[in-house]
Amino acid sequence: MADGASGECWVFVEHVDGRIRRASLELVAKGREVADELAGTLSAVVLGWKHEGVAGELIRHGVDRVYLVEHHLLKDYQVDLYCKAVSDLALDVKPDIILFSSTFVGRDLAPRVAKRLKTGMTADCLDLQVDKERRLVKQIKSSLGGNIMVEVVTPRHRPQIATVKLGVAVPTVDDRGGIIVKVHPSLDEKCVMVHLIEKIRERDEADLEGADVVVAGGRGAGEWGFKLIRRLAELLGGEVGGTRMAVDEGWVSRERQIGQSGRVVSPKLYMALGISGALQHVVGFSKAGLVIAVNRDPEAPIFEHADIGVVADLKEFLPALINELEKELGAKRA
Ligand SMILES: Cc1cc2nc3c(=O)[nH]c(=O)nc-3n(C[C@H](O)[C@H](O)[C@H](O)COP(=O)(O)OP(=O)(O)OC[C@H]3O[C@@H](n4cnc5c(N)ncnc54)[C@H](O)[C@@H]3O)c2cc1C
Asked: What pairs with residue 218 in β-bridges?
């Protein structure tokens, strides 16, 4: 183990109103894989105030140890205090690895923690693999505008820190009888340089990462097409997604962009409608189950990533499919 590291793999866990965020549960599942391959301990670090309830759920999801870091100043996310609490604990325990989600909080906090711990950090990883021999985490991410995938390692410094995109793993129930360690950090309001003025809920809180069905449209769908895509998603009980082009056109909200600079989804069914298949988009659904692509160009690269490819014009395809589904569902309900 390098630099006296403890062999612990940490996952920083985010929670809202006592509910653990889906991104953190995915990260716990990925952290479990990494810890098992390295024969190490998986620990969750949870900051807050009167938040004991989340510890049991983390243990049910396979965490060996929960560091429950409690202080009234940690009730809401505040970057200076959160950074101090996490890095002080890390200086004490010396974990081998710290994983954050590529969420607003994770992206804000991880580089600051890395700076305080004088180590490196890899942002927006799409996957993590393990080099058992060298006890390294291979941090896989896209680079050069999404045209290549690269493997980043932190060979000498510890801990190895990464932010990881949504969709990296599926949360699992795997109770191994973990323990809870309560931590009371020494924090002071004088540490606070950024003040919280108001909390505003995100406009569109669609749970794309948890959806079984995602119906995504691209530039080829057009504004008219997105009206039908919303209806199709509704009939299939799914969520609507889009490419960056569709987002830029204003046909779908920024929160629903799938891909390298958007969200990573892993539904059972992904429908790519009027989407060319650029790598920056494809990385956003590479863990989906069945992929159905519809494009009027038989040479479109999206067909290389689809299980079922339909060469058709969406202007004909979408109304016909919706019509059939409405008939089918209407008949079932009647
Ligand atoms: C750093 C960087 C990050 C990026 N991040 C993302 C990201 O997160 N997500 C993302 O999506 N993109 C991202 N992009 C952009 C990406 O490179 C592509 O430009 C984008 O995905 C293309 O979107 P599109 O498929 O909707 O449009 P287009 O490439 O224009 O494709 C439209 C497709 O629709 C088909 N079509 C047209 N009309 C019809 C019709 N009537 N019926 C059926 N098919 C039709 C066409 O044949 C074509 O294949 C990023 C780019 C960069 C450089």
From this structure: none
